[in-house]
Amino acid sequence: MISLIFIKMEPWIEKIPQDDNWIKLIFLLCFITISILRAINPFMFSYLIRIFDPILFFKLFDKEKTSLYNNFFLTGYVFSVIVFSITIFLIFEKIFPSNYNFKKFLIILVSIVFISILRFLIIKFFAKIIGFNRFINSFFLKNMTFFIQLNISLFILTLIYVFLFDYSKYFLFTYTIIAYFLFIFSQFWVVFFYLKNLKSNVLYLILYICAFKISPWILIYSNVIFLRH
Fold it and tell me: Which position among 83, 155, 171, 184 has the lowest Cβ density within 10 Å, counted as fewest Cβ atoms?
């Protein structure tokens, strides 16, 4: 479905110059977005950027009255999906060179937005079935916090990669592999934190990993490969 959308958009996308200048505009957009994030709530932002101490952030802000549906977390989500998308794009660009094709970036961006929203809705639906609904807001807040913190780091490292390391694939692969394992570790931490409140823990863990941690990467990869040909 995502691939068909981009096939129809192709005449418009082809008008965009296919060089790396648009990447610099994406970085500018990210910088503006994170500046807005800080302006929305400077106090919360000051604890959010303490990437190596997320527990303190949870102690202060992981409360029942804290909602994900506010300007702070929504802006953080926008910032994160853009940074995450451009990082994945740069990895694909090293593996499957396309002369910095803007269409490939859009495919990745829309795929990530589509998958994250779908994942959010499915988890909320199954949370009611398995009796997890009372923890769901805290569960999403922890996931979102880790995701934003990860992408703050990726934003800084990707800027270094583009402007200082001149697109060095060794630097790119090194920091993205480290970031990927840290992200997986954070996701397992969140899952195990709440699994103690459920029955059939192993079954839920396997289903969660397969449905929401493995299949999204397969979907993104298949869309990029499909439109590459």
Answer: 184
